[in-house]
Amino acid sequence: MRLSANLIAPAAVLAAGVLSLAGAYVAVNVIENRAAVEVHRALVLDGISFTDVSADGLQLRLTGTAPTEAARFRALTVAGTIVDSARVIDAMDVAPSTPLTLPSYSLELLRNDDGVSMIGLIPSEDARVRIGTAVQEAISGGQISDMLETADHPAPKGWNAALNYGIRALELLPRSKISVSADRVAVTAISESPAQRAKFETELTRNQPKGIDIVLDISAPRPVITPFTLRVLLDEGGARFDACSADTEGARKRILDAARAIGLEDGDAGDCTIGLGVPTPDWAAAVETGIAALGRLGGGALTFSDADVTLVALDSAEQDLFDRVSGELESDLPDVFSLHAVLPEPVKVDGTGTDTSDGPPEFVATKSPEGQVQLRGRTTNALVRQAAESYARSRFGLGNVYAAMRLDSELPAGWPLRVLTGLEALSDLNQGIVVVQPEFVSVKGVTGDPQARARISRLVADKLGDAQNFEIDVRYDAALDPVAGLPSPQQCIDQLNAALSGAQIKFEPGSSTIDGASLQVVDKLADILKECPEAEFEIGGHTDSQGREEMNLQLSQQRADAVLQALMARRILTTHITAQGYGETVPIADNQTEDGREANRRIEFKLIEPETPATEDTTDTSESADEQN
After folding, report:
1. Which residue ranges form the domains of the chain, and what is each CATH number?
2. The model scores a pTM over 0.85
3. DSSP run (H or E) holding 238
4. pLDDT-based confidence at 32, cuts 50/70/90?
């Protein structure tokens, strides 16, 4: 069927239209995709990777999550350089902003002999001035290096308490590093001795602020031990140390384990001192070997004095056993050590210094609990006798020595040294006896010094030399220890307030002048404080409620200050004592009665608590307080 000529033209037009639409559609897609590709390429070249680009007709849609508002705006700007910005549709999100982080305040205080360095970030310039002033006062005018930075933000909770504690620690510790933050203070310091370290730790722990973590690392230099001495004894009662020295914690453990293997009880381990001066790194190995030999011998004494080793068997030991054990020990000891083995004759100690016994010649020195010393027995000649008397008087006091020694020119060589060594050992005892014989020295007694036995063992081993047979029987009595016998801070406070409860300090009416009759009470308080450790004490002044409150506060402060000054006049160290007036604010009785008012007019002592706030001193001189105050 042939199409009508009239239909050909419309069909051609229709076909051309369809082809045009198809071509236009294809062209638009090509343009859209190319634009999207070009925009994406531009974004990548600009370092923007968070944005996805998609075409929607002639429009470009940008999606994704921008890290910041500035990054989102940058992506739109880059897209607008490729296509008309009107064609760019912004469908991007912006990540939530991170809350502003407050500055982390910290302060490092480094103190040495040259002064203090301050490093860190603190709240403000005003804080810089306050800290600098406080540090200057703490170190008494030393050099300060200020390397602080400031930030204009409020100080966090706990910062001021931590800072005050850190400056207090700086004042206490002359060689230290104090690290302060809002919730933590770390203290690293060096003390001069273990006793000073314990004092520092006690002081810093007692004053720890609430809510602040305190980290203490206070070291004490190891003592130099000379000679480096160890002495262990073994008898039917087990093993025990007269002296024990080690160069490391590991060496100490090895030595104690070796002693436990031959019968040392944990309670008899004593204090094995870790110190400097070890003669060889093989010290622990040599001591282990020697202690094992003492165990095989079944009893006796083993003494190490530097590289000299003395093994003294019991006088009842069999010769064959002694020869075998001493030979094996000499072979097993490291090369640097020299062994002297002794199988002694039975020792008979008369201990009187007279010639009534058939034993060996003796020199005997005794010391009574009252400090009286008697010297009896034999000495070589008049010059040695005079030297012994002079030495004893220099040690024990001119009027405390009674000498009754006889001369014996046949005494063995070295007798004068043995006598003087015995007297030096006796000076470490509160009471005791020293017996010197040609082949034996005995030191027995009681002491209030826990280190005395080790010190005496070290002295005798060093002075008398190798192959010496000696006995140290020294007992520690805490009641004689001047340190252990001191009262605790709380006991001091109780004693002070007990003295005041019996006789309160009185003042002249309306005055801060101590009444003459009350000076005896102040004398008693001074006697108590002389025996007290240096804890922080407060003298509190109190009044009754008569008169103006401001004037009562002023008067109570003046009276507390007067007591402090009176103690200073009695040569009491008052650097750890403060005076504080409370006025009428802390009554203990009814102010409406005369007896109550008298009870409220008082002086009290108390331990200063770390969190005790300072009471503001308010002064007003416009009126006079009632004279009853």
Report:
1. 5-94 (3.30.300), 106-219 (3.40.1520.20), 229-342 (3.40.1520.20), 363-480 (3.40.1520.20), 489-607 (3.30.1330.60)
2. no
3. strand 238-243
4. low
